Amino acid sequence: MCAMLRAMREEAGLTQRDLGRKLRMHNTMVHRSEIGDRRIDPVEFASWCRACEVDPGEAIGQL
Questions:
Q1: pLDDT for res 45
Q2: Domains, the chain
Q3: pLDDT score recorded for residue 62
């Protein structure tokens, strides 16, 4: 899942800082989520997907 989060962000052309701004969280929290030091809940996962212009349902299906 960590690799998927990072791939979604990179494919959207976003830096960790850009995504952090969209999600209203510090970029270090984005980094920690991508490396597995921080878990994200389903609502946050859906927000991450939408910020990266990915359908959350499709992303869940890929997991």
A1: 97
A2: 2-62 (1.10.260.40)
A3: 93
